[in-house]
Amino acid sequence: PVGCNDTFEQSLGPVEKFGDLRFNDIASSESARQKLGAAMESVGRGEALKVSVTHVEMKLKGEGGTLLSGFFDWSVGLVSAALSNILDKSAHYEGGRGLILMGEPCSEQTVRQRAKDSETADFIQNAPIPLQSTDCKGVIQWANLAMLDMMEYTQDEYVGRHCSDFAPDDQKDLMSEMAKAVHCGKKIKEVPVCFYRKNGGIVPLLLDTNVSYSEDGRFHHTRCFFRDDTGRRVREARAEALVDEMDRSLSLLDNFMSNALHFVRTPCNVMTQALDAARGQLDSTNLKAILHVNHSNPVISEAAKAAILESKLMLDVTVGQLSDLTRTLDDVSDLQRFEQGAELRPVINDVELLPLCHSVMAECALRCHEGVECVLDIGEGKAALPTDAKQLRRVLHHLLTNAAMWTRQGSVHLSVTHDVYPNGAPRCVFNVTDTGVGIAGNIDVFAKYHQQQSMGKAPKGGSELSQIYLASVQQARDRQVEAAGSLSNAKGVGLGLLLSYNITNALGGELCFSSEPGNTKFSFSLPYLAASASTLAPEEAAAHYDAIPTAGLTHMRITRKSAPCELCAYDKMNFDTITSSSSASSLTSLLSNTHLSRREEALNGDDTMAKRFARKEDDDTTNHPAEAEFFSPPDVESRVVTLHDVASHGLAATELPHILVVEDTAMCSKVLKMSLKKLECTVDIAEDGKQALEAVKKSIETHRPYQLILMDLRMPNMDGFEATRVLKGEMGCSVPIVALTAETGLDVRERCK
Fold first, then answer.
1. Do 260 and 336 touch, CB atoms closer than 8 A?
2. CB within 10 Å: which end of the chain, N or C, has fewer?
3. Entry pTM
4. CA distances from 458 to 14, 449, 461 (A)
5. pLDDT digits (tens, 9 = 90+) for 492-540
């Protein structure tokens, strides 16, 4: 320093104390000395006319000569030539001009505020989150160390460039749209973007932005906050991989269960058909022959009669057990599909309530304990209900079986009434009540899912709630077993109630439950109009409802002893789901040309009255009274071909129905062939789809076409689906093809359509 004013001397001391020291040497810190020295060098060399250096800590002269420190804001500039001559003739810089420094002391408040600002700036600069700011055009104004480290650029290389310079070509439009949105004052939150690093690699990022405005409300800059998106994308990829693996595993499990159940159902069905055929050999006709042969020996006649009765009983029991096994397999398969989120699509038809309820009630009576009475009440109202007959029968079967199992005395009651919903829509209400031990404990067993009320409803929700519901039902069953005092009463696998709940929901109903000792009740309601609303307009649905015939009151009491006779009327009745009446009618018309009424009944699965026909007594019945106790199915009517038949159908009217059975399992094809021959049909066998195609071609060439094809689905070489596609599509075959399979899933039914 070569000169100073009085204020300078009062604060920093006289000029003489500096000696040979540079002015910036009196700064307290090395960083302050460097900043002040750089400013003086820059102005002295003419690089800048004026440079400001703020918040410079200087050594001050205190009272008594002590040294203190204070902060100044300095402005460094060139001294004019005239002023330089006045201050000192010596000049240290080019042009003979010196420097002038003007300092402004900083107040304590300013010092404290600047310290806070400095700490905040250091915090942002060294924050682990990448940050940067851009102007209104998207040019980068500043970036912290984390951003520079992530992008692998220096401050000089990165700042001043446009954001789009670092974006891939496929994201430049996105960057432009985001810049427009930000300029309009909109915030951007968690937008996935990608930037190029200096080494050419791409880093995935999540971008958040907001705008900083000046005091006058003008756009100042955009704050950009980045997060490395690699971890999120890796987690998402892993989650997707897990979901894919889970789907694959579920698909494998579904295929395994489907295959396993298929290979179990097939022998069950074969055994059922074989046992039915064997039972047919033990009818009263065979007994009649035995009695005639052994008429002279009454002991042998009675022994033969007892042996046949015992054989029939054993066959009936075996067939019943196989039916129960098949039903259990269906329940396990369907419940597995429900737990996987599959949706049951019911097939709606008008179902007559009396035959369905009567048959399932008779089955229930067979399962009841001795002395328990089954009561069926159907209220006055519509005689039919638009619903899925098979699924409704399954629900009633499970509810009645459960009631019969836990009722040792009293009755099991099924009532069907006709009511309306709160909105006035008609509904059919089913109530299953028993006088059994009840479910011990309070009705709050389902309080977690529904409000307190007299009726507890099964939970609605996903598989987790269903599992909790199943656990609750299992606990209730355990309490029932304890109350009944014997584990031998616990039958079944414990899936019936949960399956009934799922099926009821699929039918548009709501399963309800209440219980107390001596009075357990399950109830659900099914709509009349909602079932047909998917295919009919509201006016048509209402007209359809009005067209359903009505019936009066029905009251029946069935005991275990009378159940076989009650069930006889529906022994072969088909309550399975039929998609439309066209298939049944086509098969009916197929065989009606030959006037085989009994054969028509068998193919439709309906020989309702067969067991009600008593065999006519022969002339010698009086000599053999034991024969009169037996019933036999009616003989197949003789074929009578009229002139009208020949005129309508030609010589084909005189031929026996010709049927092709496509089945790869030898036992299945043998049983089918045997059953069809009893119906006076001629049968050809093909072991796979390829053989079926050859058989159809040959039948056409020999002018002896098939009237019906029974097609298995799972076969080697060519399955039933592919064979049917070729027959119907490429060959233009018009012969009805009926799927022959142990599959019961709706997906298979849809494919068969």
1. no
2. C
3. 0.53
4. 96, 8, 10
5. 566 778 888 888 888 888 888 887 778 888 999 999 875 444 556 677 7
